[in-house]
Specification:
elongated, mainly alpha, binds zinc ion, 70 residues, 2 helices
Length: 70
């Protein structure tokens, strides 16, 4: 068992590539991974989809209670 290894694990690993985190780029291992994450943000991967509020007329299709008997 390697104590250094355990320390590294405790410090955390990059969520993108799993490498040890660099304090300068927490929680990533490098600027590269930080950039990748930033790109994901910018491309809207993490964006919460805008809620469409087109339920104003509150009309819902009648529930089909057709009981299929065979
Ligand atoms: Zn990384």
């Amino acid at each position: 068992m390697n104590e250094l290894d355990r320390k590294t694990v405790r410090a955390g690993s990059c969520p993108l590539c799993g490498k040890p985190v660099d304090q300068a780029f927490k929680p990533f291992c490098s600027k590269r991974c930080a950039d990748i994450d930033l790109n994901r943000w910018l491309s809207g991967v993490y964006a919460v989809p805008a809620k469409e509020d087109d339920d104003e007329d509150g009309e819902r299709p009648p529930e089909s209670d057709a009981d299929e008997r065979s």
